[in-house]
Design goal:
- The strands form two sheets. A four-stranded parallel sheet has the order 1-2-3-4, with helices on one face. Strands 7-6-5-8 form a four-stranded parallel sheet, with helices on one face.
- The protein is built from nine helices and eight strands.
- The protein has helices at residues 12-17, 31-47, 69-76, 90-97, 105-117, 126-134, 182-193, 223-230, 248-251, and strands spanning 58-62, 81-86, 120-123, 143-145, 170-174, 198-202, 215-217, 236-237.
- Strand 3, helix 6 (126-134) and strand 4 (143-145) form a beta-alpha-beta unit.
- By secondary structure, the protein is of the alpha/beta class.
Amino acid sequence: LDAVHVHLRWPTWMRVLGKSAPFRTQGWDMSSERFMCMWGPVIHRWFHGPLDLNRFDVVHILTQGNARAIIKARRELPRVKFAVNADATAIQQSDAFGFSRTSKAYSIAQERRIFDAAHLVATRNAWAAESLRDDYGLPESKIHIASNSVPLPERHRWDGAERETSALPRMIFVGSWVRKGGDILLRAHQERFADRAELHIFSKVPSPDRSAKNVVWHGLVPREELLDRWLPSMDLFVLPSRDDMLPWAALE
C-alpha cells in the first residue's frame, strides 16, 4: 500500500475569516459554513497542484467540512475513488445539540452533494451512520463504521503512588473549556464538592479562576504526559459536554 498523508494547516487568512464568535450562537455565527466554503478552493488547488490525483486509486478526506472539492473532482477524475469521514451530520447537530435548522441549511445542502459524490462515507459511530441512512438516504453499501480505539495503558491507576497535592479524591477534566462543559463542572465543584474533592483541569482556559478552592489549573500538557502521568493518578473523569460527536478524552 502506497499511502500519502497530507496534514492540512489553516492559513492565517482562513483563521481570521473563519473565526468563531466568543459565545455560543447555536450555529448562527456560520463558522463551520465559512470554513466549508474556504476549504473547497484550497483543497481543489492541492488536487491540481502538489498532489497529482491521477497517481492515486483512493482519496480519503477527514471530514466532510473539508470535502467540498470532491464534488468537482469526482467529475474531473472519474477513475479516482473518494472517501469521506463524518463524525456527525449537520442534521444531527440541529436535532441533538439544538442548532437552528435554518442556520445549518447550507451545511445540510452541501453535505448531501458531498455524500452523493463520495464512493464511501466512513463514520466513527453507529449514530452518525443512522443519520446517513435515514436523513441523507445513503445506501448501506456506501457507509462504513470504523470505531476508534486507544491502546490500553500499562497501569490504569496510580496504586500506591504518593499524591502530589492532597489526599482528597481527584477529579479530572480534559478538553475545550466551553464546548466540553468545563465551566459547568467548575461551578458544580465549587458549589458542592470544593471541600470533598480536588479538581484538576487540563484545558486552555482564557481566565482561570485562581481563587477557586481545591482546583489545580494545568493548562495544556503533552498527550503522553496526560496519559502516562496524570490520568492514572485520578479517581474520577468528568466530561459534561454540551455537544460532542466523538468524546476522545473519554476513550482515553
